[in-house]
Write a structure and sequence with these properties.
With about 160 residues, the chain is mainly alpha-helical. The protein is built from four helices and three strands; from the N terminus they run αββααβα.
Length: about 160
């Protein structure tokens, strides 16, 4: 009985398609194959971070906390950018694909970069409406880390497709 030879793979075989006619995306091993998972986890955390405290400060007998949703339009845009990232990464599983001129990893990197810019605006500039809460909360840093994770996942996916 011979051991199977893993290095003698048939690369000329036609790809298998599912019942919808969509070629499944094979996960490659290692860090490069983790790009899709990293992107999805980053997008979920990015969307949920809007409901965490972005600003905190002392109040009368209590500590004030302002969630990202209440920081104006930027907080709401960050939520929708996180949901848009989830939608873009789910299109292939739904049987839809973006046009070839818009590669999916580049769209994900662009969404992540846009959300990073929005969050950096909120890191630098505290809105006037939340001035009693004058320090940055942990949710703002989590959202910044999540948007950087989305960018990293998009870069890993771009490397996977090359």
């Amino acid at each position: 009985m011979d051991a199977p030879d893993f290095f003698d793979a048939n690369f000329d075989a036609a790809p298998e398609y599912d019942d919808r006619g969509v070629e499944p995306h094979p996960l490659t091993a290692g860090l490069w194959g983790a790009g899709e998972l990293i992107t999805r986890v980053g997008a979920i955390v990015l969307a949920l971070s809007v409901f965490m405290d972005w600003y905190a400060g002392p109040g009368v007998g209590v500590t004030l906390s302002v969630i990202g949703w209440h920081t104006g339009l930027i907080g709401k845009l960050v939520l929708f950018l996180g949901l848009a990232t989830l939608l873009v990464t789910s299109l292939r599983r739904l049987g839809l694909q973006l046009p070839p001129t818009m590669p999916e990893p580049l769209v994900v990197i662009g969404i992540g970069a846009l959300s990073t810019v929005f969050i950096l605006i909120r890191v630098i500039s505290i809105p006037d409406a939340v001035l009693p809460a004058n320090s940055r909360g942990v949710g703002l840093w989590i959202s910044l880390l999540a948007s950087l994770t989305v960018i990293a996942g998009g870069i890993l996916r771009a490397g996977d497709e090359l």
